[in-house]
Amino acid sequence: xxxxxxxxxxxxxxxxxxxxxxxxxxxxxxxxxxxxxxxxxxxxxxxxxxxxxxxxxxxxxxxxxxxxxxxxxxxxxxxxxxxxxxxxxxxxxxxxxxxxxxxxxxxxxxxxxxxxxxxxxxxxxxxxxxxxxxxxxxxxxxxxxxxxxxxxxxxxxxxxxxxxxxxxxxxxxxxxxxxxxxxxxxxxxxxxxxxxxxxxxxxxxxxxxxxxxxxxxxxxxxxxxxxxxxxxxxxxxxxxxxxxxxxxxxxxxxxxxxxxxxxxxxxxxxxxxxxxxxxxxxxxxxxxxxxxxxxxxxxxxxxxxxxxxxxxxxxxxxxxxxxxxxxxxxxxxxxxxxxxxxxxxxxxxxxxxxxxxxxxxxxxxxxxxxxxxxxxxxxxxxxxxxxxxxxxxxxxxxxxxxxxxxxxxxxxxxxxxxxxxxxxxxxxxxxxxxxxxxxxxxxxxxxxxxxxxxx
Length: 455
What we know:
Layout: H1 5-14, H2 22-41, H3 48-58, E1 64-65, E2 72-73, H4 75-87, E3 94-95, H5 101-116, H6 120-142, H7 156-168, H8 173-186, H9 192-195, H10 200-220, H11 236-240, E4 264-265, H12 276-288, E5 296-303, H13 305-311, H14 321-326, H15 329-339, H16 349-352, H17 355-362, E6 365-368, E7 378-384, E8 389-394, H18 407-421, H19 430-438, H20 447-454
Parallel strand pairs: 5-6
Antiparallel strand pairs: 1-2, 3-4, 5-7, 7-8
Helix pairs in contact: 1-8, 2-4, 2-6, 2-18, 3-4, 4-5, 4-10, 5-6, 5-7, 5-10, 6-7, 7-8, 7-10, 8-10, 12-15, 15-17, 19-20
């Protein structure tokens, strides 16, 4: 009945908050900053009002705060709403293969911290340990092949979320094992919601957060979960991995090195992570003058196999044009070429359905290039009216660890998100909100930060 998860559970239950390196704690604070900015921007986007309305119906107690208000719901429902809002614009952080860790991890941590009155230091340490466990499982599964087998990789958030909540709620080692097993038993999502450009993309992230916290509360109440979570006959590796996992990677440097920072992308453009390099390369070519929008006659894009699966379809915006735009290489390229910018404003419904952009995107030729091994590798061939041809290669968009975002980049992104929110209680207060987040590590609890956002 032993399973590789046991060593990770021992680690998650036993590591002291004070043992988490200061560098790792600082990185977790950046995750909170990025997440709450994305939540602000996504606060009133399509689907979020429905999520809140349903959460109110499903909630029977007041335990945790819906960020941006004083309203309190049952902790799992609060985590659900906050996660939907954080994921709404796909501006949130991402970790290959499409796991958006903070959009569920941070809502789980904040809701659990309100239940337990945990300190800011304990919150950040729990986020570090949860992400470490999730990334170790992710890395072991990907060791022998990149994996998308029809599932939404945010299932990894069930592991990290249960660890985060379990630590903050003070579960015993055995209870934490059951919480992780119960969280895995819930499962979550299929990749089809990306391909069909459905609002389920946003809602599924909320379900990850809700289920992780529910699983933890069930375990605390005595409900048992499956134990052979990773290597059982129907465990994670058999269900979701492409090949044999690298099990020795699970405990490599365990307790000394906390994984996550080396693989996390903080997006600086609000579209799918595989399109960031495409946006950046085209914006740079336009700014240099090599790409002349008024003279462009033809555009051809060669993309990696991963880009084709996620974002390579025809661009024909439907009832959710924002999502169509976020997951389309054609739209991303057309937007960068014609508008020369890629902010939240360019991924609204009205921007995504602008006739000139839709027509231009429709004329683009897109083809898969199997030799492009990195998931965001692509190249654009632009032909101008004078017969000149411009080749624009792209790889490692800014924000990915290979081309990391700076502290100033993240602060600017946060201010953009707050301004985009349209909420008077936040506009003009971005620096105050940033300061509230930056002092979380020294705060006795999460109350001051939540109150700053509710002001």
